């Protein structure tokens, strides 16, 4: 496991991939990519599964607002240049899979330098990304993320499903926190490579109705050494109504941190 993860994260640790301010993200379609980091993310599912499902593509549950915003950002992933092929635009869609590791060979399991066992094959094979583990379309978290490398921004379009209820008819605060962590965490990961959330500070300003679609916009505040500071707003789809505000601190980590070494 340690060796497998080491291989997977090799791209993150390349000296050619420092703080990713100047690094290029995946191009419009997110099919081919340029940075070692984004290449690594996109390679993760295909390394373990022949047919990974990208959950951030439209499905039958997406309502008109979700589709409208998806098309709005998607249309800015590629730009037409007269007489030339389409070129990458300012925004790029981030694909989203429901697992990062499927199986590891038994031989790779899992005695760590610290002597502990990391994850059994059974547990790891059942592991799923929290936000993608309800497979009924539209029931829980429907979302898609786009990043803008020039503006150092990330946008999440989030359609709230009926299984996310907290207060009657409204979205659970933990589900909102989950999506804020997902957008800001993905943004920090794109900027800085592998990170973990160290601090997440949330102000809930107005309840979000179940079934509504909201915009989650995150911006880079600053980077200092291993720290990436990001702030985030959850608003209505026209930006006028503020639902939630947050700030987050992410710390860059090494693989050995994840493995408990
Ligand atoms: C992995 C990639 C996969 C790729 C796949 C594709 C991407 C797919 C994206 C999905 C997006 C989902 C995003 C979910 C992201 C989570 O949910 S992560 C899970 C929740 N977070 C955790 O469990 C983290 C638990 N905490 C820890 O592991 C450790 O405390 C940390 C955060 C790594 C920090 O530990 P450490 O590295 O030992 O750092 P430490 O030396 O204590 O502190 C370093 C500096 O940070 C400061 N600091 C540390 N903690 C704090 C704090 N809480 N507040 C303020 N300052 C702090 C210290 O004061 C210190 O400052 P200086 O003295 O250097 O100025």
Layout of strands and helices, then pairs:
Blueprint: H1 2-8, H2 36-48, H3 64-74, E1 78-79, E2 87-88, E3 91-94, H4 121-126, E4 141-148, E5 153-160, H5 173-192, E6 195-204, E7 213-224, E8 227-235, E9 242-252, H6 255-258
Antiparallel strand pairs: 1-2, 3-4, 4-5, 5-7, 6-9, 7-8, 8-9
The structure holds Palmitoyl-CoA.
Palmitoyl-CoA binds next to helix 5, strand 6 and strand 9.
Structure description:
By secondary structure, this protein is α+β, with helices and mostly antiparallel strands. It has a single domain, classed as Roll (Thiol Ester Dehydrase, Chain A). Helices cover 23% and strands 25% of the residues. β4 and β5 form a beta hairpin. The structure holds Palmitoyl-CoA. Palmitoyl-CoA binds next to α5, β6 and β9.
What is the compact description of this entry?
Helices cover 23% and strands 25% of the residues. A hairpin with a 2-residue loop joins strand 7 (213-224) and strand 8 (227-235).
